[in-house]
Amino acid sequence: MSPTMIAPVVVEENNRYQKGVKHLCDNGLTKVPTKYIWPEPDRPIFTKSDKLTKPKQNLKLPIIDFAELLGPNRSHVLRTIAEACETYGFFQVVNHGMEGDVSRNMIEVCKKFFELPYEERSKYMTSDMSAPVRYGTSFNQNKDNVFCWRDFLKLYAHPLPDYLPYWPSSPSDFRSLAATYATETREMFEMMVKAIMESLEIDGDDNEAAKELKEGSQMVVVNCYPPCPEPELTLGMPPHSDYGFLTLLLQDDVEGLQILYRDEWVTIDPIPGSFVINVGDHLEIFSNGRYKSVLHRVLVNSTKPRISVASLHSFPLTSVVKPSPKLIDEHNQPQYMDTDFATFLQYISTREPKWKNFLESRKIHHL
Ligand code: OGA
Ligand code: NI
Questions:
Q1: Which of 75, 141, 270, 326 has the fewest beta carbons under 10 Å from its own?
Q2: pTM here?
């Protein structure tokens, strides 16, 4: 056989994995296929009883009560946000203004979407990264050597009327529930930007970046992590940082998200009805390195399916991402090069997601 020929059986195997983890599990599975087995140093650490070995308690992230931002405690809350973004790159938000029904309905309708027959879901499968809707599996299924235990549905969400007609038409209430969810998360994002700006001591109203972010892109990513027969061998998502400005994450009541804190992986306790907010690469650059875009990953478990919905908010494609001029003076030099979004996307689409290659490549090393 010539070296360029791939044995038909290998092609067959790969096709099987391209259809996603849900499809694989629906056909019965008692072991994790080799394709999903991560090298030992990258695996989570479980004890034999399938329980995660926890060196410490789960991490309690700082909790921001959004209602308090509107009251006399505003400056205290802003300081807590600043400390959380510096220390963890993450915080949780309660009293954020989104009705419980909106988030519960979103989780429920997403669950139903992933329970549709494969033929229905696969209508949205495409390798075109700019498609308004993209269904897929793993992290980058065209490049990953080892696959992740995750299927996803990515929806472009701004401007909503441009994209909504392309969103899944089944389940029948998907579009209306997901549209409400996307609109309300966007409102939450705008309030959050104002608070983040103020926490950096940048005037929230009179600033170019805040205006650009109002027109920025929004992508809603629904993640589906089916139960896994051997969760100690694989990952739901590999270590990565989010490329945008902020990510607003809604999780169901199943834990799985871990963040890197002081060189250790720590699990974030889900708080029902709350949002997990994290600093993305754009905000790390914008804050000139003060706020950290922190690596995080997802573990799976053997009993409970898990659904999460991440809303990723970024500067518009036309913006140049750079440290805020308001944070630069003779004592504070820019720590990052100016970057346009196209360069950014091109870089991340050609590199492994692991580690913070991109941010590292944009750092200016002052002598
Ligand atoms: C993401 C992400 C975490 C989760 O979608 O970028 O990190 O818990 N998700 O699913
Ligand atoms: Ni992420």
A1: 75
A2: 0.92
What are the distances in angstroms from CA 6 to CA 109, 144, 181, 263, 285?
Answer: 40, 18, 45, 40, 43
**Ligand 1 atom closest to Cα of 297?**
7
Facing residues of 156 across strands? Answer: 219
Mutating to test ligand 1, I would choose from 140, 296, 313 the residue with most ligand atoms within 8 A of its C-beta, which is 296
> Which residues neighbour 59 within 8 Å (Cβ) at sequence distance 6 or greater?
88, 259, 261, 266, 267, 268, 269
Strands 275-279 and 306-313: unpaired
Q: What is the DSSP letter of 253?
A: S
Does ligand 1 come within 6 angstroms of the Cβ of 284? no
61-109: per-residue pLDDT in tens? Answer: 999 999 999 899 999 999 999 999 999 999 999 999 999 999 999 999 9
Q: Work out the angle at residue 87's Cα, subtended by the Cα atoms of residues 84 and 89, and round it to the nearest 5 degrees.
A: 65
CATH match for 54-321 among 2.60.120.330, 3.10.180.10, 3.90.1150.10, 2.60.40.60: 2.60.120.330
Nearest to 203 by CA among 194, 212, 211: 194
Among protein residues, the one whose CA lies closest to atom 10 of ligand 1: 308
Residue 14 tokens, joined? 């790969």
Domain boundaries along the sequence of the chain: 54-321
